[in-house]
Amino acid sequence: MSKHYKIVVCGEGGQGVLSIAKIIATAAWLQGRKAIYLPNFTTEKRGGVSMAFAQIGDEPIRFPRFEKADLCVALSQRALERLLPFFKDGTVVIVNSMLVKDLSGIEQWKPYRVDATTIAKEQLKKPRTFNMVIMGAMLKCIPGLSVEGFDGALKKQFDSKYKKDPTLKDLNEKAFRIGYELIS
Amino acid sequence: MSEKKFIMGNEAIGRAARAAGARAMFGYPITPSSEILHFWSGEAGSEQGKKDNLVFTQAEDEAAAGFMLIGSVLVGTRAFTATGGPGHVIMQDAFAMAEAMRFPIVAIVMQRGGPSTSTVVYSQSEVTLACFGGNGNGYRIVYSPASIQELYDYTIKVFNTAWKYRFPTMLLSDGYLGKMMDEVELYDPAERGIVMEPAEPYSQGQVRTRPLAAIVPSPELDARVVDGVEYACFRNCLNFEEEALAVNMETKTAFDAVAPEIIEYEEYGDKDASTLIIAHGIVSASVKQAIDNLKEKGVFARLFRPITLNPFPAEQLRTSAKNAKRIFVAESAVGQLGKLAAHALCGTVSVPIVEYSRPSIGILPKEIEALVMQPA
């Protein structure tokens, strides 16, 4: 059976669902792991539900979709509903607690509530660091990836943006670490 | 120098077209193929792209893009287009003209849900349209890759197939492969000993290294020399039924003659397994995973995967199916690969061909495993 670590991120179009999964997969690949990423979305840019799949492992990964996930990330309430079929025993669940209020159906999974919106807006004063906070929380849950390796991957990926705005690098790393520390 | 990258399938296609020495792209954006256009427009606008005289035109619609592509090919440009879904429907008019006059156009088709707008990412429901979408009696070559690496490899290949055999050639894939990110090895075809077929012009007044008649297959061409100038007369309009019959049969004979050289297929799994699964494209990747998973449980199955959907590896499938006790066809469509397989196997197998049809949705390895585990 395939032993890849399987991740699904789901949220509203425009929340950065695809970017989160894409960056996680790319960062894993840059750290020498095998990775695969697949987006799934509707015709709307905003107002539709987007879903993205990522798998990380040590062997080549053949097929981009899967039935059950090791990590589910819900960025909105209706996204959570779309994620339910991916839950299995031991699935780690992270929710964006600003938009996902009703956790009554999934208490047995002991979801991590991450208020990335408030952290990004009030603590970091940059709403766009929302994704970094979520990714930090995710990274804590994914085995075999290091924070340092992730920093390096981000640096490689955002090289041109960091050159334009050097403060962005520190901000991203800070946001990322806040998310990382939120998961115990 | 080859290098490994973690990129999107559509970017791999764009890079392969560049590596193959393609010079022009004409298209109209549609999900899930748009990143191919994005990539090419970026290349065409870059310093290097300008040096290489790259051309990119976003046409007013797919019909225009298809005919621009034909025009470009006529003057000897290695050119291509990319489309999918409803755009693929609109482009059929140009494809049919390319069939009629055997123009080596290259089309990258990324399938999405259908009919009409439907979903934007995935299906395998444009197989029939890709293989037989013209108004009849035309021939085209259709490849179905199954990984991002194959998107790269076969995008290089389709240019050579088109220009070598002078039939319109398509790379038929889907938005899973196009929008997926995976590791891909990028290389210069020359490094692998791949020689690109020269893209020589059809039309008059162009420099050619060979006489027209050697480049352009008859009977569509009527080459005449008047006052030392070679004129090409192309026709997609014929006068008499008898003439149409002659032209149609000559094209058919030409296609049948080269088909054995073009046909590609792959087999996977235990050669003696009595369960045979027929699948193409990304679904075949899922079947391979299922076969590996089943093997761990001591259950054996095998895959027959047509890589060329047209011409179809009929004879090879018949050989593969001869000793099969159970035959499944799995596809993200209803009865498209199924019909091709049934037609190939007609009268040669005594067991039923069971179709597992999942239109516009991915087929997980687990579903294939469940099929195989069903009591016979």
Q: Give the N-to-C terminal Cα separation of chain A.
A: 29 Å
- Overall mean pLDDT of chain B stands at 93
Q: Which class do the helix and strand fractions of chain A yield?
A: alpha/beta
Number of domain units of chain B: 2
* Strand order of the biggest β-sheet of chain B: 3-2-4-5-7-6-14
Helical residues, percent of chain B: 40-55%
The level-1 CATH class of chain A: Alpha Beta
Question: What kind of oligomer do you see?
Answer: heterodimer
Distance between the termini of chain B: 51 Å
Please identify, by name, the CATH architecture of the largest domain in chain B.
3-Layer(aba) Sandwich
Number of helices of chain A: 7
Tell me, what's the shape of chain B?
globular
What CATH architecture of chain A do you see? 3-Layer(aba) Sandwich
- Average per-residue pLDDT of chain A, rounded, comes to 92
The assigned structural class of chain B equals: alpha/beta
CATH class of the largest domain in chain B: Alpha Beta
Please describe what this structure looks like.
The complex is a heterodimer of chains A (184) and B (376). With 184 residues, chain A is of the alpha/beta class. Chain A has one domain: Pyruvate-ferredoxin oxidoreductase, PFOR, domain III (Pyruvate-ferredoxin Oxidoreductase, domain 3), CATH 3.40.920.10. Chain A contains seven helices and six strands, in the order βαβββαββααααα. In chain B, strand 15, helix 14 and strand 16 form a beta-alpha-beta unit. Chain B has 376 residues and is α/β, with parallel strands linked by helices. In chain B, helix 1 crosses helix 2, helix 4 runs parallel beside helix 6 and helix 12 packs across helix 15. Chain B has two domains: 190 residues, Thiamin diphosphate (ThDP)-binding fold, Pyr/PP domains (Rossmann fold); 107 residues, Rossmann fold, CATH 3.40.50. The mean pLDDT of chain B is 93. The interface between A and B is medium-sized, with 25 and 24 residues.
